[in-house]
TrEMBL record:
Domain (UDP-glucose/GDP-mannose dehydrogenase C-terminal): residue spans on this chain: 333-448
Highest taxon of source: Bacteria
Source organism phylogeny: Bacteria, Pseudomonadati, Bacteroidota, Flavobacteriia, Flavobacteriales
Annotated coiled-coil segments of the chain: none
Protein name as it appears in the record: UDP-glucose 6-dehydrogenase
Gene3D superfamilies: Cytochrome c1, transmembrane anchor, C-terminal, NAD(P)-binding Rossmann-like Domain
Organism the protein comes from: Formosa undariae
Length: 463
């Protein structure tokens, strides 16, 4: 089966870049990305590509090439669904904040709404592709809704989890380590799998497209994120041990990373992982394990989250302790707010939690991030509901010039590994700071030796 018309529901960090690349690589397929968020769609359609709602290196070029040719962004959800032969569901699946499974289970209300909407508007058979990260066996629920509420159209459900990493999304989509497609092992299911293999096959080598049953595919995505997060928590746990024993976590990471069985990636200690996925997907895995009565499995994975929370608290508390046990009224400059470099995404960013703890200690925070807006930062703090909006506004000042953030500061906290931080005039910064001038490098990005030579007192995690 050759697909000519694709619809993607959800124009977020996954839907937008993924569909842009599918459209660029398949000029013969019309790809329409739809979203309920009018502002987001308007930004995707902005003639100035600097205003795309998502910052990813190289994304502007891909969108610029395909948009208006065979890539469209629209709020007309029903129309796009009905016209498509293949519908990707790429909506958000946050952790539940209410009811049974609160704080752990994935909130599938957006997925269910999509399924009901697809069933309601479809007048022809379709392949439905789960692009969102979902608990294992969600396809069964989607199928039940489609089969029981539809107008007689037939649906095949595929699981096609996305493995892109924010900050390198375009690169990852252009040359994925693998594409994973799960489907029913029936003749119709295999035909649907084949149709999606052909979409990716225009640029991904066939041997890198793995096909499995539905449940293996759904569970593999949660497993991949759990393994990656586990590595971060593992090295972070050892960073604390390094600090008390005189070992250096960077050296330990380098030493073990050379072991081909371990490998060098994700072995950098930091203030903790963030992002929209790791925490929610592990919590989801924990919840699923618990719901099957597998308490030992659940406890094992939950420890990854506990260690991550510990690392964020430890970093913030160390700032307070080092600044003579009080940061009240002191200016603490934050370099970075995004959860990692090269993205404007701040979901679950360590910066938010470190700020929250320091605001409780009555610090006066001044933050600078090259891609994150003030509105976003205030929204992140308000979301925690630790204090009211006015108090957050009073405690946090957001500036567009890093030197303004750093001037007269008692301490600097590096929360994101943006490359530009390395290029600053650190002598000038030192001259304009309060003394002793403290730097807390939560990402190990700055040149510690050079900073110490200038006169800074530098703390780097794991040293
Ligand atoms: N962000 C990542 O790095 C990443 C990587 C791999 C997988 N994922 C998974 O992909 C999914 C999407 O993540 P994201 O980061 O793109 O989320 P996002 O919040 O950036 O985007 C989701 C979009 O879906 C829209 N939406 C929700 N319900 C809708 C509906 N009924 N109709 C139309 N639009 C609707 C929202 O308005 C939003 O713009 C999640 O399940 C996530 O776990 C994310």
């Amino acid at each position: 089966m050759k697909i000519k018309n694709i619809c993607c529901i959800g124009a977020g960090y996954v839907g937008g870049p993924t569909m842009a690349v599918i459209a660029q690589k398949n000029p013969g397929i019309k790809v329409t990305v739809v979203d309920l968020n009018v502002e987001r769609i308007a930004a995707w359609n902005d003639t100035n590509l600097d205003n795309l709602p998502i910052y990813e290196p190289g994304l502007d070029k891909v969108v610029g090439e395909a948009r208006g040719r065979n890539l469209f962004f629209s709020t007309e959800v029903d129309k796009a669904i009905d016209e498509a032969e293949m519908v990707f569901i790429s909506v958000n699946t946050p952790t539940k904040t209410y009811g049974v499974g609160k704080g752990m289970a994935a909130d599938l209300k957006y997925i269910e709404l999509c399924a009901r909407q697809i069933a309601r508007v479809s007048t022809s058979n379709k392949i439905i592709v789960e692009k969102s990260t979902l608990p294992v066996r969600t396809a069964q629920a989607i199928k039940s809704i489609l089969d029981n509420t539809g107008n007689g159209a037939k649906f095949q459900i595929l699981s096609n989890p996305e493995f892109l990493a924010e900050g390198t999304a375009v690169e990852d989509l252009m040359a994925p380590d693998r594409v994973l497609i799960g489907g029913e092992q029936t003749p119709e299911g295999l035909e649907a799998i084949d149709a999606l293999v052909n979409v990716y096959g225009t640029w991904v080598a066939k041997e890198n497209i793995i096909t499995t049953n539905l449940w293996s595919s759904e569970l593999s995505k949660l497993t991949a994120n759990a393994f990656l997060a586990q590595r971060v928590s593992s090295i972070n746990s050892l960073s604390e041990l390094c600090e008390v024993t005189g070992a250096d976590v960077n050296e330990v990471g380098r030493a073990i990373g050379k072991d081909s069985r371990i490998g060098p990636k994700f072995l950098k200690a930091s203030v903790g992982f963030g992002g929209s996925c790791f925490q929610k997907d592990i919590l989801n895995l924990v919840y699923i394990s618990k719901s099957y009565g597998l308490d030992a499995v659940a406890d094992y994975w939950e420890q990854v989250i506990i260690m991550n929370d510990h690392q964020k608290h430890r970093f913030a508390k160390n700032i307070v302790k080092t600044l003579y046990n009080t940061v009240s009224g002191k200016k603490i400059a934050f370099l970075g707010w995004a959860f990692k470099k090269d993205t404007n995404d701040t979901r679950e960013s360590a910066a938010i939690y470190v700020a929250d703890i320091l605001l409780d200690e009555q610090a006066s925070i001044v933050a600078y991030d090259p891609k994150v807006t003030a509105q976003q930062m205030y929204g992140d703090l308000d979301y925690l509901q630790t204090r009211d909006t006015a108090s957050n506004k009073k405690g946090l000042t957001v500036v567009n010039d890093p030197y303004e953030a750093l001037e007269d500061a008692h301490a600097i906290a590096v929360l994101t590994e943006w490359d530009e931080f390395k290029t600053y005039d650190w002598q000038k910064i030192y001259d304009n700071m309060q003394k002793p001038a403290f730097v807390f490098d939560g990402r190990s990005v700055l040149d510690k030796v050079a900073l110490e030579k200038i006169g800074f007192q530098v703390y780097v995690i794991g040293q």
